Amino acid sequence: QVPLVESGGGLVRPGDSLRLSCAASGRTFTGYAMGWFRQAPGKEREFVAIVDWTGYNTYYADSVKDRFTISRDNAKNTLDLQMNSLKPEDTAVYSCAASGSSSFSPDDYDYWGQGTQVTVSS
Asked: How far apart are CA 9 and CA 4, in angstroms?
């Protein structure tokens, strides 16, 4: 059973917005930091945004700062990523993940979803 399930990906045009959601399945991630990572074809997986277990502290990659917003609802066990002003270089498979620490490295995340494709193209 996949512990995290993403939804909300799709094909959009440059400048459009998209909201990704991630739902925990079969367990709770209260107390865990959660993050969004992405992987474009031919590239390594990279950090996009993370939120600590409280939900109050957030961190963003420079490439998405001021365009993306990460949020979590611990009561609902969900994680969201609001993406505005999308660019073609945002095209990637986006995955949510959970970790015991607020790390920027995907290697420190123990639980992963299967990912959802985001394509930004005119």
From this structure: 15
For the segment 66-111, what is each residue's pLDDT rounded down to a tens digit?
A: 999 999 999 899 999 999 999 999 999 999 999 999 999 999 999 9
Backbone angles phi, psi at 88, to 5 degrees: -55, -35
DSSP string, the chain: --SEEEE--EEE-TT--EEEEEEE-SS--TTSEEEEEEE-TTS--EEEEEE-TTSS-EEE-TTTTTTEEEEEETTTTEEEEEE-S--GGG-EEEEEEEESS--S-GGG--EEB--EEEEE--
